[in-house]
Structure formats: structure tokens, C-alpha cells
Specification:
Elements lengths: L2 E3 L4 H13 L1 H11 L4 H16 L6 H15 L4 H14 L6 E3 H18 L10 H16 L4 H18 L23 H20 L1
Antiparallel strand pairs: 1-2
Protein name: Dihydroxyacetone kinase subunit DhaL
GO molecular function: phosphoenolpyruvate-glycerone phosphotransferase activity
Keywords: Kinase, Transferase
């Protein structure tokens, strides 16, 4: 199959929640090297609150992503709550009217998510932020799609580019946020936002591939 049913895909959101919960300590450990050290704690708090809201409910992928976005936007402070809240909101909005999610629909989802964050964030590629993971991942997915690759192959391309983008932040100097004050000393450490973004995109790819 080259698509999946939105109605059957709430499990993708369950997997996203579980992934962030499992990576909580690692994300905070990375963040603690050049930031506040609370990225994993805050992300875990947000997704766990969402998990509690969704408990006992039936929801499709878009509805679950919307709940995740709203919870992070409304209940989590700092810079990452609004950014990830918007990311999940955009993923939801681009798919909410779609019964079947195929390579074209997901292409719109990942494009809207990247564009949405670029609209509200001053960060650019190379500034050592989550965009260093998200933008290459989005571009790789679209390039693979336009080359005629199937949905799963496009997801592989997205995942590979996300990993390279995430790993590239280790050699960057932070230009945005608290870590930017460290200048050259911010080099040599992975960016926490780029790290969580990689985990999210990797989880999205794997979860979708498991139901295609």
C-alpha cells in the first residue's frame, strides 16, 4: 500500500508521545551542556499531559496531532513549547480533511510544518536549532517524491537527512537563544532542539512505515 487511513493512525501520535517520554533524560542531558537543561523535562511534561487528555478517547492521526499541538502551545513555556506546538498544529491542519494519507499529503504536512516554524522563528539554517534537522528532512522528502520514489522511500530519505542535519549541529556555533551567549564554547555539543526534532521525524517515519 502507498497510503494509510487517517482514521486508523492515531497510533502514530501514541508512538510520538512514547518516544519523547523515553528520550526525556537524554534530551535534558544534552540541553544541560549549553542550555537550561530542561528541554527533556518540558517536552515530557507536555506529551504526558496530552496522553492524559487522550486517554480513553478514539482519535485519528490529525486529531491526535492537534491535541499534541494545543497542549504544547498552551501548557509548556520556554521557546520550544510554541515551536513544537506549531509544528504539530501544522501537521494536523494539513491532513485533517484527508481520509487517506499518501506521499502527496505527507509532503504538504512536512512542508507546512517547516514553513510555519520559519515564519515565527528568527533562526536560519546553520544557527544550531531544530531547523537544521527539519529543513533538510523536508527538502529530502520533497526531492525523493518529485523523483518518483514511493512513500516509504521518501520517508527513508527524510529520516536520513534529518539524522545528518541533527548531527551537523555538533560543529555549529549557536546563534539563537541562551546558548548563543557561549559563542565558540557552544561548538562540540549537539543542539537539544535539533535532537528532539530528529527523534520526532524518525518516529514519524517508522510509525508510518509500520502501517503502510
Amino acid at each position: 500500500m502507498s497510503s494509510f487511513k487517517n482514521a486508523d493512525a492515531g497510533v502514530i501520535v501514541d508512538h510520538l508521545i512514547k518516544t519523547i517520554q523515553e528520550q526525556r533524560d537524554y534530551l535534558s542531558e544534552i540541553d544541560g551542556k549549553i542550555g537550561d537543561g530542561d528541554h527533556g523535562i518540558n517536552m515530557n511534561k507536555g506529551v504526558t499531559m496530552c496522553e492524559d487528555k487522550l486517554k480513553g478517547q478514539t482519535y485519528n492521526m490529525s486529531e491526535g496531532l492537534c491535541a499534541l499541538g494545543e497542549t504544547l502551545l498552551e501548557d509548556i513555556g520556554g521557546s520550544m513549547g510554541p515551536l513544537y506546538g506549531l509544528l504539530f498544529d501544522e501537521l494536523s491542519a494539513a491532513s485533517e480533511d484527508q481520509e487517506d494519507i499518501d506521499v502527496e499529503v505527507f509532503g504538504k504536512m512536512i512542508t507546512k510544518a517547516a514553513e510555519g516554524i520559519q515564519e515565527i522563528s528568527p533562526a536560519k539554517l546553520g544557527d544550531k536549532t531544530l531547523l537544521d534537522t527539519l529543513i533538510p528532512a523536508k527538502e529530502a522528502f520533497i526531492i525523493a517524491k518529485e523523483a518518483g520514489k514511493d512513500f516509504s522511500e521518501c520517508l527513508d530519505a527524510m529520516r536520513d537527512a534529518a539524522k545528518k542535519g541533527w548531527e551537523s549541529t555538533k560543529d555549529m556555533i549557536a546563534k539563537i537563544g541562551r546558548s548563543s551567549r557561549l559563542g565558540e564554547r557552544s561548538r562540540g555539543v549537539l543542539d537539544a532542539g535539533a535532537t528532539s526534532c530528529y527523534f520526532i521525524l524518525d518516529c514519524l517515519a517508522s510509525s508510518i512505515q509500520s502501517i503502510l
